[in-house]
Structure formats: C-alpha cells, structure tokens
Amino acid sequence: MNLHFKYEKNIQIEQLETLYNDVQWYAYTQDLAVLQQAVSQSVDVLTAWDCDELVGMIRVVGDGLTILYIQDILVLNDYQNQGIATQLMQRILQKYRHVRQKVLLTEEAADVRHFYEKNGFESCDQGSLVAFAQFK
Q1: Mean pLDDT value across residues 51-66
Q2: Under CATH, which number does the domain 3-105 receive?
Q3: Is residue 68 exposed (0-12), middle (13-18) or buried (19+ Cβ within 10 Å)?
Q4: pLDDT tier at 73, thresholds 50, 70, 90
Q5: For the whole model, what pTM was predicted?
Q6: N or C: which end of the chain has fewer CB atoms below 10 A?
C-alpha cells in the first residue's frame, strides 16, 4: 500500500461514486453532480489515496473559525480497520484545533461511538448538551 493524504476538493465524479457506493451511502450518489458540487463547496476536504485510487475522505462544512461540522468521513471497505479514518480525523482536528465547536451527526453503533469517543468527541446523550436535527 502506497498511502498518501492530500487536501483536495476537485475529485473526479467516478472516484466519488466508487467511494460512496462502496460504503453504501447511496443517497449521496443518486445525484452525482450535486455530490461533486457539495464536495467542492465544502470548507475543507482531506483525502487518502493508495497510488491513484481514492480510498478515504473526510469532508467538513461550517465557517472554519467558530464552528466546524464533520459532514462525511468514509473509507473503502477493503481499507477499513487500518487507521486511515483515524488519520483523516486527527489531521482535520489538528488543522482546525483553534475552532471551539466541532460537531457531527451519525448513526448509533458501538464501533461508531467508540471511534468518535477515541477521537475526543462526547456524545450529547452523555454530556450536558442537547442535539436537534430535522431531516427532509
């Protein structure tokens, strides 16, 4: 494996489709033009590559000064459990360490909870915060 990371918003649509479909995030790939535009308009995108293959990505939105929302973090199934998601997360958190509020919303699962907690996040159901969301 020849893994390298780069900050890259202009990702080929086919590479995005492969990555999102591999982790079964099909809602994103129903309109690939929207996905590509969302990625390019994000505050920041950090990608992981094995040679020329996109194997992972973290995408953040917000203002990058007072709030940072981690919108997507995903790694191809064949590359999972190798520390790639942790490296993506830690690099983004380090780059935006000055931002006071870092937020994310995800589905409940033991491994998911463990991943975010080991990266310094506190679940709103465990602390003094309350979270609200509205879905279309």
Answers
A1: 96
A2: 3.40.630.30
A3: buried
A4: very high
A5: 0.88
A6: C
Q: CA 93, 97, 98, 99 torsion: positive or negative?
A: positive
Read off the amino acid at residue 10: N
Distance between CA atoms of 67 and 105, rounded to whole angstroms? 14
What's the pLDDT score for residue 86?
A: 95
Going 100 to 105 to 109 to 112, the CA torsion angle's sign is: negative
Whole-number pLDDT of residue 130:
74
- In the chain, domain spans: 3-105
User: Residue 3 corresponds to which tokens in the numbers above?
Assistant: 């893994």
CB contact burial 23-47 (16+ within 10 A = b; e otherwise): eeeeebbeeeeebbebbeebbbbbb
